[in-house]
Amino acid sequence: MARLARSGDAGAFGELVRLHRTKAFGIAKRITRDPQTAEDIVQDALIRAFRHIDRLADAERFAPWLSRIVRNEALMSLRRSSRRAKESTFSDLTGTNENREENVTANRINDLDGLLYRLSRSARAGDETDEPENAYMRQEFFAAVHRMLHGLSLRERDVFEAFFYRQLGPQEIAQALGLTEANVYKLLARSRRKAKAERVREYLRDSIDASKGSAGAVLAMRIPPEAWKSCETSLAVCVHQWLLHAGYRDEELSDVMGRTGQAFRLCVETGSIDVSGPSMYFWEPVFAEGLANAGLRVRFAGDGGAAPTAYMLREAVMLARSEIAARRPVIAWDMFQPGFGLLFGFDDAGQLFTGDDGSGAKRLSYDRLGRGKAGGVFVMALERDAGKRDERQTLRHTIGMIAAHAYGELTFPGYACGFAAYDVWIRRLREGAADPLGNAYTIRVAADARLHAIRFLRGFEGRLEGAAGRLAFEAEGHYYETAGCFARLSALFPFPEGGSLADTETARTAAKLLQEAKEHEEAGLESLMRLARLL
User: Which of 28, 126, 156, 471 is the most buried (most CB within 10 A)?
Assistant: First the structure.
């Protein structure tokens, strides 16, 4: 990977960052003892590493090389902080504690611009031993801080300046500015959020300017509301709409569900069967394999697992922009509600995407990508594979994915997949430990998926001859019975009402239906595996 990155492959460098970022952050945090400073240091170190990776003589030594850069950046940061703390220009607050309040009042926020000016002058003077690149990056930082703070209200700027630059405590600020301590804490929190958001926007703006890319584009794409209601697996809806936009009008949604393996999946949260279960698995390998089987190549940015760092957000935004500029929408997680949707427009001037995830076409700020209700940035770009697919090979590969999922797919701690998911689910129902909403939602997703599994298998029956056709018909029959069990479960536990899990008899009936569904599905998979051996 490091060799590819050294040759200029930005994607390979992004993968290196994903692998080593946590360790780099740990090093910076141990030195600075401040998470926010550590994050800034890691960001600066990654920029330096990307710019100078061609100097890395031994590609296998990337990790220690990056660690050394991070340590140097962290130590330089401490030295700069120590030097600035000694400079009188940091504050006009001379004298005793008794007259400090009067000095603060006399030096209200109007002095903040002067303070930032002095800091930037100090940065320009710099250390004679500093490299020109470091001096330039410091100047850019102070210019960015200046722009950030102008996004605050007058009162927010007052509090921000007194706390961060004049080193006053909340009680002192409250007395000097005629506020309550509670108001000071609220203003500090709000100004922090605003400054951080502006810093991210500034970072994205600089990245966009450096890319010299398109200023904006909106694809002629309208997703009918009924499309989102045609399937409970939002990923499949997005892939299907992407194919339709690309001109593949003969593609059926059930074919997408089947070829990607989504029609045969079952994932549950093991503690209480909560609503997170159906979407909690390792997306990248599952999507890459399934979409390759559907004739699509994929590229990812982000992992969908946590609020994005500035770097991760940048990667996602740049990927989405470049794909939309190339007339291809991208799939994104958690834009306006938990689930997948499509981004099909961007506007650099306003830093806004246009997208739809079933809640209608809306605008989404670049910096809000990955910060929805579920959290975690994840953008996936698709490209049609020019190779011709063989139907029998596609079906054989699909069966392989179904079996791998059913018999032990690797997943997150606290979650289970395939037949193991059935076993956990049955136990939770018998124990009375299932969450009503999560139970109903998981049933809804599984019931819908099995209907698409039936349609997918039915499409193959007429195209397979002899024993192969009979096995496909047999497998369809077993999955039809599985779907029937889930239909009865849906009647017992409608979503979003949830049904009555507290009723012992109802819970016992539900556990029995799940056991039957599992047995039918096991028989269906056995028929499919015999079919695969014939193909």
Answer: 28
